[in-house]
Amino acid sequence: MKLIGSTTSPYVRKVRVVMAEKKLDYTLVLENVWAPDTGIATINPLGKVPCLIMEGGDTIFDSRVIVEYLDALSPVGKLIPSTGRERAEIKTWEALADGVLDAAILVRLENTFEGRSQYQRSPAWIERQMSKVHVGLHTMSKGLGDKAYYGGIHPGLADIAVGCALGWLAFRFPEIDWRGQYPNLGRLHDKLMQRPSFADTQPVA
Q1: Average pLDDT, whole number, for the chain?
Q2: What are the sequence ranges of the domains in the chain?
Q3: What's the fold here for domain 2-73?
């Protein structure tokens, strides 16, 4: 399998962590979707990463779709409950973590995208998106509570998704003091960083 992505994308990192936890072999093919000569649209018509090229050449995209497919490939280290309310809860935490990232990335693009002038950037839009980030962090902390992991005593997809979101915020928005505000999220992130799957996939510029 080939994973198309970048070392800075938190969504790509989520897939890479799942690949490592599931002990699946793959090749990472780096792609800059913002480069003028990018060919990402030939793989994903939405022009986004990650994309997974499976054996046989078929392609799937969107990190949530990819990790669900990967979790079903092998019984090793099951990350998503098979059915029922537990499954819905884990997928909801993943959706929240991804939503926090969606909002934070919109803020970053609003502040840095070269296609917009300083006068075109909207402080009100930035404030709206940042409120989603802060409410999301509060909700993630409240949901984790005093538990070791979202699903109990073993890390699962919810923890991976939240951990990737926290790692990217630390990388791109170091001014957000989520460790100080939510010590339980800091403890979760520290535990995850002790795992090779997380330590080996830290975002780098």
Answers
A1: 95
A2: 2-73, 84-199
A3: Glutaredoxin (3.40.30)
Q: Cis (ω within 30 of 0) for the bond into 36?
A: no
pTM greater than 0.90: yes
Q: State both tokens at 1.
A: 């399998």
Q: Which amino acid is at 185?
A: L
Residue type, 10: P
| pLDDT tops 90 at residue 79 | yes
67 confidence band (pLDDT: 50, 70, 90): very high
* HEC string for 42-107: HCCCCCCCCEEECCCCCEEECHHHHHHHHHHHCCCCCCCCCCHHHHHHHHHHHHHHHHHHHHHHHH
Edge-first strand listing for the sheet containing 2-5:
27-30, 2-5, 51-53, 59-61
Q: Which fold has domain 84-199?
A: Glutathione S-transferase Yfyf (Class Pi); Chain A, domain 2 (1.20.1050)
The mean pLDDT value for 37-45 works out to 94
